[in-house]
Amino acid sequence: MSELRDGRLPALVLFDLDDTLCDHDTSLRLRLRYAFQEAMAGRESVDLDDLIEASAKEAIAGTAHFAEMLRQRGIDDPAEVTRATERYVHDRFRGLQLFDESLDVVAAVSRHTQVGMITNGPSQIQRDKIRLLKIGELFPIILVSEEEGVWKPDPNIFARAVARAGVAAADAMYIGDSPEHDMAGARAAGLISVWINRREREWPGGPPPDFEITDLRQLLPLLGIA
Ligand SMILES: [Mg+2]
Predict the structure, then answer these.
(1) Are 73 and 101 part of one and the same domain?
(2) Are residues 209 and 175 in the same domain?
């Protein structure tokens, strides 16, 4: 891992939301289980865990793939698709929680420098999530892609965040879990990129992030504030 330039604390530290501050991945699997378990009841030939994993792999949000997922497993009844879709949508934030360290780390960073958030998604869903997690107050700057009309990895959404904070891109840091959306976008916009790799995956290729961590607590020594 390289050193921060001049050992200097960035003037702005920006965070992704899903799977960086909160455990969207676990919540997604709980929601998929809830959505599909009724359709699967009594069908011993279908493996519910396999369906959940296949669905999570197919899309990290939305229900457009449900009909095909069920059809592939011999369930062709539109009523079952509708029911699974309704259960998934109705139960949008099931089990959604912050990671253990998120509040403490953001609070610690914000005592030393500006903090903000850039999150991809529809405004209503992301804003409701921020409210539910009670983290709105922690972030003076929050950009939600639907509200901005720009989605990560478009570098413009990162440029907007640094402009709003009144800092230079090179003096800002972005922490996110997605190589494609977070790391590629932050890099293209000239920010310092920090990949949070909680599941210790292989870097998928392409220009690597400036830093890699597996837990947000590792940010503090990186920033020189712990
Ligand atoms: Mg994410």
Answers:
(1) no
(2) yes
How far is the centre of ligand 1, averaged over its atoms, from the C-alpha of 220 (Å)?
20
How far apart are the CA of 77 and the centre of ligand 1, in A?
Answer: 33
* Residue 57 sits in the same domain as residue 112: no
Q: Are residues 67 and 77 part of one domain?
A: yes
Angle at 139 between CA 133 and CA 145, to 5 degrees: 80
Q: Which domain holds residue 68?
A: 25-90
How many Cα atoms sit within 13 Å of 124 on the Cβ side?
2
Per-residue pLDDT reduced to its tens digit, 82-139: 999 999 998 889 899 999 999 999 999 999 999 999 999 999 999 999 999 999 999 9
- Gap from CA of 16 to ligand 1 centroid (Å): 6
Which segment of 2-6, 52-56, 120-124 scores lowest on mean pLDDT? 2-6
For 63, the 3-state DSSP assignment is coil
- 114 and 199 in a single domain? The answer is yes
